[in-house]
Every structure is written in C-alpha cells, then in structure tokens.
Design a protein that fits this description.
- The protein has helices at 2-17, 51-56, 63-74, 107-124, 134-141, 147-150, 168-172, 177-197; strands at residues 42-46, 83-86, 93-96, 99-102, 128-132, 154-157, 160-165.
- By secondary structure, the protein is of the alpha/beta class.
- Helix 1 runs antiparallel to helix 4 (107-124).
- The structure holds uracil (URA).
Length: 217
Amino acid sequence: MTTGATEALSKLGDEARGCRACPLWRKATQTVFGEGPADAKIVFVGEQPGDREDIAGRPFVGPAGALFDKALATAGIDRSKVYVTNAVKHFKNDLRGKRRLHKRPNVGEVNVCRRWLIGELDLVAPQLVVALGATAAMSLAQRPIKVTSSRGAAFEAARRRVFVTVHPSSLLRLREEEERRVAFEAFVDDLRAAVQLLGQPAATHEDVSERSGAAPS
Ligand code: URA
C-alpha cells in the first residue's frame, strides 16, 4: 500500500515538474514538490518555495526551513516522519539587481496549483494537515483565513482535518530578540497542540471548503 502510494507520489511529482498551468514556472528554476513518507500522519503545508528551495528543489531548506526544523525538534516531531509541502510549487519572485525577492502568490495562482496539493493529500491521506500561514490555510479552506484568529484551531477542509498556525518566516521578520523567543515558543506550542490531535476522533467540524460561496477549486 505504502509502496503504491510512494510510487504514485513520485509519479505525481514528475507530472508537477512539467506544470505550465500558470506563469510562475518562467522565473523559477524548478518545481518544488513535497517530500516525506507516503504514510505520514501529518502533512505540513507552507506557502511556496523560497530562493534556496528553488535552487535545491526541496521544500523548507532555507532560513525559514532551519527555523521550522528547530521548532519541530523542540516539539518532539521527527521531520523524517512527516510530509512537508507547499500550496504553490514554484518560487514567485521579482528580480532586484542580483537578488530574487519573494512575491506572495495570488489567489488564482494558489487555486491553479491546488490540484497538486490535493493530489498529495489524497495519496498520503494524513490524519492531520497543518497549514503554515495564511496562503496554505486559504488554499485548503478555499476562503481567506485570518491566522491570528484561527491559529490553534482545527477545522475540516479539503476533506481533511486542518490545523492552522503561523508561517515560520513570520518569526524571522520579528526584530526584537525577546519577541522572537516568545513567538518561537508559541509556534512550538501550536505544533505540540497539533500532535495532540492525532488519534483523537475529529469533532464534527464544518468543512469550510464546502461552504457555499467558497472560491471554486
Ligand atoms: N517558505 C515556504 O512557505 N515554503 C518553503 O518551502 C520555504 C519557505
């Protein structure tokens, strides 16, 4: 079963590598598909690959990834046992001099890329999906989600149980060391709370992505 899902994921990744459904591939080095075991219980979803991920072809390997790894380790989560991916598979950027600056993907780009994310979720079939930040949450829920008011809460979306927390990059943007320390602890607390949900029966949350008025996928 897992071998089949592993092979199917690898096939899906190969298909995604040829995706030209939106213009983002033009400025990116390559598609950055998700990685991790096909039988992972948790899938973490970020926004999109950054500069380092674009070059390496792997999700969360740059500065935000280092912080994410540290938070996972502090929360007692083994990264090699979880599946890590992004809502958008190409690095959206603007060239300023020699630097490629991150640009947030728009709703259309997120929706076009959603088929790859849903494909990954269908194959991994995790017990829990953790949305790291607003873009991932919006892709899953198909409507805008305010991370400040939704973090730490679980809801049903995309036929999965979804837990929302902040994006690790938001911690990197904090200027004060004390502010960063507090934010890091809150992030780790969220990760611990997410793990606590594993094995617990899902409450009868409303599937927010099935609500009328939600953006079409
Ligand atoms: N930020 C993301 O959202 N994803 C990555 O893979 C890296 C940085």
